[in-house]
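Q: What structure does this chain adopt?
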Amino acid sequence: ATGPTLIFEKILYDFCTQHHWSFLPFRFWVGVGIATYLLILIITDASALVGLITRFTEEAFATLISVVFIIQAFQKLYEIGYEAPITIHPEEVLQSTCHCRLDSINANGTTISKNLSVGVTRCIDLGGTPEGLQCFFKPDVYMFSVLLTFGTFTIAYALHKFRDSRFFSSKIRNTISDFGVLIAIILMTLLTHTIGLEVPSLKVPSSLRPTLDRSWIIDPFDIESPFVILIAFLPAAFYTILIVMDQQITAVIVNRKDNKLKKGYGYHLDLLVIMVLVLICSVLGLPFYVAATVLSVMHIDSLKVESPCAAPGEKPQFLGVREQRLTALLAHVIILCSVFFTSLIKLVPLPVLTGIFLFMGVVIVALFVVKYTSTISMIFPLMLVVMVILRMYLLERIFTQKELVALDDIVPSFSAVMSPSSKRGHPRRPPPPNEEELQTLKAKRQRNGSSRHDSVRN
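A:
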């Protein structure tokens, strides 16, 4: 799952809660609807429409995903501050000692209260009530969490930029940069356990089972009414738009000419695989799988090949990308093995992971307001389609063709993208015209305009 899909899952859950529906059965039928829509798109070769996706849409979508990580990071910090607030008046905590009030009723029916000097856990086990500010006082937890978050972000970002520094050889710099996130997590985790404060940590189940008390298979007929099945196909349409745009835009970003990839592409096959995975995840109640933009771009960066520097201080030249499947396969095998190392994963503090979320984002808030408008929140995937329409029709009227070529790619016509000849291979965008072609295009438009003017005058 990615940031936008996480947003839609939250919207879908709130929608079910508002109407008192069971979420997982409703989500199952949403998944069936998504698979149906994806099958229609696959049959009609709708993936050819990715030719309409230009750098304008790519960067707007990447910004949206990055903003999701930033917002989630600050939300987690706010939740930690709510559980362990900052102590504004420490003298009040020193004066309010912790004691356990244990109430009992004697034979006459009179309530007798006793104050015991025991810990909070022991007090709750005895059935008492902990009283006093020192019972729940957590010293400096919130401020330490803030330091961990921004410390992790700073280390990860600095090591990420270490690739462009002039220290050591390019191979050593690239290796340090590729493992920058892991190094930041290890360093800040060791710092946390060295200091010894009870910072919130990641909650991981000890066994391989669903977190809820349910079976692995979702009961699709545990619904309130058969009409719920029909209603599920409406949010499924919006979810399909989100999944298709998320998957295809990520694929377009990865397959940029800047990356100098040599192997072929499979936009239609990708949607077929996504359709099968959506059905499996709907049955098991798992998050829907789709290409992750940030991780995909970072994966491409880690596989880039640069020329060896001959002269001191010379900037290496980008040669291409190591195109293979081994790194992605090993990464997912390690993710599978992480299930058996939950005792180690529990040691990672939650603020450290929050710093990683902050690292994966950028400081731009565009397009994110729609998510918090409850009346239109479910249709926020349409904003991605609107970005394509704005690029095709609105920006063409605001900027000149020369200005658009300098900032973006040329958008082909709808008929050119959907023609049978363009569907045989990868739906490539036409190369940007040079200066001479722009002058010819401008002169042609002027001649067409003058001829139309003469015909009207005649």
